[in-house]
Amino acid sequence: MASVTNLRSNHHAKLAAWLPLFVLPVVAVWSTRNSAAWLCMWALAFSIYAGLKWLSYSEYVENHFCTVRRSIGYLVAWPGMDAKSFLSTSPSFAPPHPWEWRAAVAKMVIGCVLIGIAVALVNRQMWVAGWTGMVGITLALHFGTFHLFSTAWRQAGVDARPLMDAPLLATCLNDFWGKRWNLAFRDLAHTYVFRTCVGRWGIAVATMAVFVVSGVIHDLVISLPARAGYGLPTLYFVIQGAGVMFERSPLGKRLGLRHGVVGRIYCAVLILAPVGLLFHPPFVERVIVPMLTILRLDWS
């Protein structure tokens, strides 16, 4: 009888952990059905983020104790998904270097300047403005603001490593996606996708599964608000997965695709050449440009 009760309790805990990930995006789409496409994009992005955040937190606290203060900090003031490192009370990591504060602020400022340039250009050079705006948002948010959060938390004694680990220094495609770019998603994907698949179907299938899941998530956030371009972001990440598998192959190793100048060039080409599939024209035209136009009206 006790075992049945435990099974039910575990089932309910799993349901409570996973349910927001499926419910919140539906609520986001429904609540923004009559709103601007860019509002739908941000609502979807935040709802998926919140669902994944709750999942990572719930899985950790099921078997570990953490303080209320640390829990609140993880849930509302840290964008990372490595609950174990952040919520642990005995972390082993180096405090931030003084230059990190300046670097984080500099990236935020440069990103905001690019956003300002995009806003100024939006009525004259739509496509230039759209791409400039996306670069600016990424730089200000992911590289600047998130790095500032990381620096502040580490200064306070919390293990919150930067989510972007110098991606421009990547020596190969696997290094870029696996160790340097958006480590928040990397942590979750490795835990819930890669580990689940690798034991059953091997490394190749598990690797491709991670990229497919990433593609589907980006499709939801990018293509659904634009109401066009469905499947293109997923195709982009399938190409990335295939590129990683090729550089791991005997031929890829002979060609030197995992190190040196050749590896860096291969990495840059595979990431940048098909990027139009990820941020496809309907997304730029229907989501990013209208958002920049609203900012122009607000600033004028």
From TrEMBL:
Transmembrane segments: 12-30, 36-55, 104-122, 128-149, 201-222, 228-246, 266-283
Keywords from the named record: Membrane, Transferase, Transmembrane, Transmembrane helix
Every Wax synthase domain range: 161-225
GO-annotated biological processes: lipid metabolic process
Pathway(s) annotated for this protein in UniProt: Secondary metabolite biosynthesis
Subcellular location: Membrane
Membrane topology: Multi-pass membrane protein
Superkingdom of this protein's organism: Bacteria
Pfam families linked to this entry: MBOAT_2
GO molecular function, one term: O-acyltransferase activity
GO cellular component, one term: membrane
Identification of the protein by name: Wax synthase domain-containing protein
Species for this entry: Symmachiella dynata
